[in-house]
Design brief:
Layout lengths: L7 E4 L8 E6 L4 E6 L3 E5 L5 H6 L3 E2 L7 E4 L8 H27 L1
Antiparallel strand pairs: 1-2, 2-3, 3-4, 4-6, 5-6
Length: about 110
């Protein structure tokens, strides 16, 4: 989902075992995570939460406020639609992270 985004950095404590992978901006603001092989989690702006929940996301408060978890392997959606959905939420989370990064720098 991050292929088209600029300046994304990744972190994983144990990439061989797929524990989790974090995506963050150059400034270190985490905006997405892959948890194992079964969940994608995005840090979204508050105004996007209801839309994400309506599209099948679930609140994921373990990482803090405004985190939404998606199952990227929804059986009721075709692969192309699923990919487009995840790319949409990832882009939104990335731009939200950049805004957070910029507001922290001011």
């Amino acid at each position: 989902s991050v292929d088209t985004l600029a300046d994304v950095t990744f972190f994983s404590p144990d990439s061989d075992n797929f524990a989790y992978h974090l995506a963050h901006t150059r400034g270190g603001v985490v905006f997405a995570a892959a948890l194992g092989l079964s969940a994608l989690v995005f840090r979204l702006p508050k105004q996007a939460l209801s839309g994400a929940l309506a599209k099948g996301g679930e609140m994921f408060n373990e990482l803090g406020e405004n985190w939404i978890m998606f199952n990227p392997f929804w059986p009721e959606r075709d692969d192309e639609h699923r990919l487009q959905e995840m790319q949409h939420w990832c882009r939104l989370a990335y731009h939200h992270a950049l805004a957070l990064e910029n507001s922290a720098a001011e």
